[in-house]
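ASSEMBLY PREDICTION REQUEST
Request ID: AP-0331
Submitted by: J.K., bench scientist
Number of chains: two
Total residues: 251
Priority: normal
Notes: Please return the full assembly, not individual chains.
Input sequences:
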Amino acid sequence: MEAEASFNDATSIVLFTIFSGAILGAGISFSGAIFAFLRLFFGGLIVGSLLSLLAGFFIEKFNMQEYAVYLSLVIFWELTLSQSF
Amino acid sequence: MTANGATAVVTSGLVLRGILSKPMFGASRQEKVLDFWSNVAFLAQSIIFLVLGAGFSISMLTSVWFQALVVVLLLFFVIRPISVFLATHFEKKLSRGEKLFLSWIGARGAVPAALAASTIGLGIAEAPQIFNIVVVVVLASLLITGFTGRKMAKATLTTPLASKKS
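STATUS: Completed
Returned structure:
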């Protein structure tokens, strides 16, 4: 249920990004909106998965279990600051 | 622009949680990370609601009450049930009662309120009205789920959801 709620929030942010961009910009077609949604949503899934898997690899490889909090903080900071890639 | 930061953050959180649940980390370290992020989430939500509360007035309630009522009714009785039943159509572990319960308690949130607030900064003409409606809907959903959640759980659930593995 926690994951469901989190993904709901993420989905609403993606939809907001698309529609606010369409309202403020030159508009967007239906197919364009679908494509943008898939690109942003699944792009986020791929980037988030890759970065955390990489962090997991480093934690295990270099015995950095004690620093898991800091690593998760760095990942969050990087992804939040970037917003889009 | 090929990926969304929010989706990436949520995904990385779920994947990291899976990695941290490995035995090599130990329960205490896993708890430490989860506690840290629970506190960050609590702090972030507190800030959002404090900022929204600072801009809230009774006139906001009265100016958009009808539009907000329509949205609340649609959200609780149409949109949320349809989306929950569609999303869990192939989920055999959940009973009809549990799906109804999920439909009822799902609508709330700091994120919709924060997004509505950001429309004001974007310079959209209807932004103040959108913001007012969203704030009233969020407030109403918090109050409705808060006051009726226990009764709804008793009416719809036979076993606690938490005891089920997803």
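REVIEWER COMMENTS: Chain A has a mean pLDDT of 81.
SIGN-OFF: pending second reviewer
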